[in-house]
């Protein structure tokens, strides 16, 4: 197949085999180890790089490279879904010179139906991205406040369907204060990220972005406040005490704090809610 990717993501060009299938004979690097025909088809990486923004192009190219894709399978008979889509495959059939349904490793990708014309194909895509609820505690997995150095795990739920059919895996990006810290290929549903090492004192802007196989994007942005908690005291532990003992302490941290004492492994008295910081 020789042609080009149009701006809507469709493939146009000459098809040398019937039924809208792709002629891999024209992909000159298909037999070379670690080469990826998905890029050979009209120079996909270069074409998408010039016509689409890099964020929407990268998931497809990343999948091809990571999975060491060797071919493409066009689901002309709609065996894998209700519509005809392209899939990356791990091998090429030596007779048909095409990727095989049995060796699909990634997809589907809506690169336009085969058979001559371009265009991205029709269909209604619905996509959601929201904060997840911890199945064990029932609490939202996006804390408003976190002690600096303490654990900070966030969780989101996402889904994407095309004409009511799940679109498969997507690519998720996580940013802290505008800096990308992780990129991950994820299945639909609950996804967790550990941000413990990235939370600093003050407000931290956290953004989660997911891109599905059709380059649809959803973002979720919120703040996590990093609180520096400290507890100090001038109590003289080397002295001997009888009767009631007065223990003075200085809590630090600009957040409501619950302070309680544990003596010989047993909690003593009731917790005290402290709003002040840096005061005895």
What order do the strands of the largest sheet run in, or round the barrel if closed?
A: 7-14-13-10-11
State the share of residues found in helices, binned by percent: under 10%
- Largest sheet entry: 5 strands, mixed
Structural category is: mainly beta
- Which whole number gives the mean pLDDT? 74
| Rg, alpha carbons | 28 Å
Describe the structure.
The chain is mainly beta and 280 residues long. The chain has 3 domains: 2-109, no CATH class; 125-227, Immunoglobulin-like, CATH 2.60.40.10; 231-274, no CATH class. 9% of the residues lie in helices and 39% in strands. The chain has 3 helices and 18 strands. It has helices spanning 37-40, 44-51, 54-66; strands spanning 2-5, 11-14, 71-74, 86-89, 104-109, 125-131, 145-147, 153-162, 165-166, 170-176, 179-186, 189-194, 202-211, 217-227, 230-232, 250-252, 257-263, 266-274. The strands form 6 sheets. A 5-stranded mixed β-sheet has the order 7-14-13-10-11. Strands 6, 8, 9 and 12 form a 4-stranded antiparallel β-sheet that branches. α2 (44-51) packs antiparallel against α3 (54-66). The longest helix is centred in the first third of the chain and has 13 residues, at 54-66. The N and C termini lie far apart (77 Å). The model is unreliable at 1-30 and 113-122 (pLDDT under 50).
């Amino acid at each position: 197949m020789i042609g080009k990717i149009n701006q809507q993501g469709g493939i146009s060009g000459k098809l040398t085999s019937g039924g809208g299938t792709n002629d891999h004979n024209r992909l000159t690097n298909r037999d070379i180890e670690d080469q990826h025909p998905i890029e050979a088809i009209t120079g996909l990486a270069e074409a998408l790089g010039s016509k689409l923004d890099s964020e929407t192009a990268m998931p497809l190219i990343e999948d091809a490279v990571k999975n060491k894709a060797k071919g493409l399978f066009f689901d002309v008979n709609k065996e894998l879904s209700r519509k005809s889509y392209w899939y990356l495959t791990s091998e090429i059939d030596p007779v048909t010179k095409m990727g095989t349904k049995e060796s699909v490793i990634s997809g589907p990708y809506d690169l336009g139906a085969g058979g001559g014309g371009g265009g991205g194909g029709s269909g209604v895509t619905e996509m959601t991205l929201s904060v997840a609820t911890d199945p064990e505690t029932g609490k939202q997995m996006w804390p408003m406040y976190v002690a600096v150095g303490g654990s900070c795990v966030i969780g989101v739920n996402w889904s994407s369907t095309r004409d009511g059919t799940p679109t498969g895996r997507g690519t998720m990006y996580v940013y802290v204060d505008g800096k990308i810290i992780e990129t991950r290929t994820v299945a639909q549903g609950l996804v967790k990220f550990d941000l413990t090492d990235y939370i600093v004192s003050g407000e931290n802007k956290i953004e989660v972005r997911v891109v599905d196989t059709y380059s649809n994007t959803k973002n979720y942005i919120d703040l996590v406040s990093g609180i520096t908690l400290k507890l100090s005291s001038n109590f003289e532990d080397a002295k001997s005490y009888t009767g009631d003992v007065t223990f003075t302490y200085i809590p630090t941290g600009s957040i409501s704090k619950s302070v309680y004492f544990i003596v010989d492994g047993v909690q003593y008295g009731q917790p005290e809610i402290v709003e002040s910081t840096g005061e005895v």
